[in-house]
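Bumping with the actual sequence this time:
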Amino acid sequence: MGRQFPPDDTIAVSDEGGDRDALAKGLTEMLKEIGAHTGAIYRLSPDGQVLELLVMEGLPREFVQPWERVSLTAPIPVADALRDKRLVWVGNEEDMVRCYPTIAVALPYEFSLAALPLSTPAGDYGAMFIVWSGSYPPPPAHTRDRLGAAAAGLARKLQTVARSSPSGRRKHDAEPITDPAEVLGAMVARLPEGMCTLDIKGRLTYISPNGAALLGESPMRLIGAQPWTVLPWLDDPVYEDRYRRAMISQRPTSFVALCPPDRWLAFDLYPSISGITVRIIPAPMEAEAVPASTLPIDVALPTRTGAIYHILHLASTLTQAAGVQDVVNLVADQIMPAFGAQAVALLTAEEGRLCVAGHRGFPPHIIEQYGRLSLTSPTPSIRAMVTGVPNFFESQEELYQIYPSAVAPDDGMAAWALLPLIASGRPVGTCVLAFREPHAFTVEERAVLTSLGGLIAQAMERARLYDAKAELARGLQEVLLPHALPRIPGLAAAARYLPGTEGMDIGGDFYDLIRLPGDTAAAIIGDVQGHNVTAAALMGQLRTAVRAYAAAGADPGEVLYRTNQMLTDLDPGLFASCVYVHLDIRRRVARLARAGHPSPLVRHPDGRIEVIHVPGGLLLGIEPETDYPCTEVPLEVGSLLALYTDGLIEVPGTDIDDGLTALGAELARGGDQHLDGLAESLTRNAQGADRRSDDVALLLLRLMALTMEIP
């Protein structure tokens, strides 16, 4: 059942001036009319690269701390909405996990979300998101139009907001509402028997005398404070998580806590868009039902839930990195904006010197200086790496006070965070975050950044190992694939190989063209299961075996039979598919055998496309005694034989037959052009794909008259 919207054609937005208060008022009015409980407006930075949180209504800003500043390239709804100029809809937790896993880790609650761009004909100004409680299906067209109209109204207001302030943070939070009539009226509207209320920032705005007595504190000390800051026994991430869950999901929740020395209290939380009503009642607990205490009752956990979720979000972001460059890009695109930094450099130790693994925002001469430093230099970045102690310099004056002999960095920055990268107990480098203006690092921010240094170090170690393995595999594959096809009279040939974009960017696809005596030649194309070093090595063994059996004069069925026996004897745990072709150029005959591979295509001189149906045997490496029937196909001068692997015709979400039909149509259209140009045309879609889960191999053979030159 979808959310019901008001019947009018547009969603009203406040017509007041273009300051933040008017923008917030317009957002609040829109939330009321569409039945959402939370919304936020992001402003696009002057350089067009970062979205900055400007206004948020319905939840404390601390709830979205990891996303106060986000790169426009970050995979989050508001960035996607502005970048793609579309409505982004996340209808439930499953959608969030599938589309935005890092947000799902940080906000594991039940809610639905819409994100929209804030643009006018004059340009892009930002984006917004809206949150509803519970799960909802994608909105129908008329609802999308009305949301778009509301976003357009807010975009016009955002257009008038001055860009003088670099961030959307307010200097002072509004004072909590303390008028008893107003507070009690709101509380009674939510829960008639309620005993205390909290505003959206978690501050107590009212508590009944009986409620204060149960908590063991005076109302005067509690009003205006967050309960966990006044009552140490409530300073537990588990309890704060219940509060966050209620605010984000807008659904009631509860928990039980021990009030010293031995009184158990039950807390029932009833949320609304203006805060939470809490009912507190004694909770009789049987001895066996009492939760085990893991900490002394007077020991408060030092880390707030928001900081924990912030670290979880950043950690899950770093798990997406495969190579070192991925780590650098993720730190620069997502982590750097999250803390408001303007520059970052990842420095590693290489053979007694610093090496810049990646950077963003620093001028070239600073990067050159980093690259010239030895590990004995008395500089802050090296000291942080050697000692394992993070350094935070809130201004240039503080830097010179601690390092009097430090040379002015001349990097255009005024504050720095130097995070040692420690992996497996040993230093591997330093992460330098820099800020253009003096920056006060809070205790929580220092704790999060320190933890982040360890996460970056682990990601760097995994990435460096991955890069080393990938380089080894790529080198092995390049050696094993033919560097050039042989020139054979009467035969024109062209080939292409594209690695997959997932995993190590390598695979087991292979091809070969073999010159044989007596105006004959052999060709093979195949696909070894897997995308790793083992697959690449096995591909080389298969190619060598086929060459040996072909040179010995074996017919196609015999070549595959012997190759299959060799593979089953090796028992590598991998299988392979292939098509082997023996070409008699003078007689214009092709003889083929197939082992579980896609069927070849022939383009006849008249442009007609034919799929060669070759009776195939099992994949190589499954059963040693497998027969591979041989099929003979007559060819004309000008006939074009196309051998390919399944990566060329398999597209996620489409039928493989449709991919084969599309390949045949492209072959029919362009079959008369030069083979190199045709190979480019046939692989163009695969080359342009953002992600290829499989590698691609293509081998084109055109039969020519023996007296003609090869084109």
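The tokens above came from a reply further down the thread. The longest strand covers residues 123-133.
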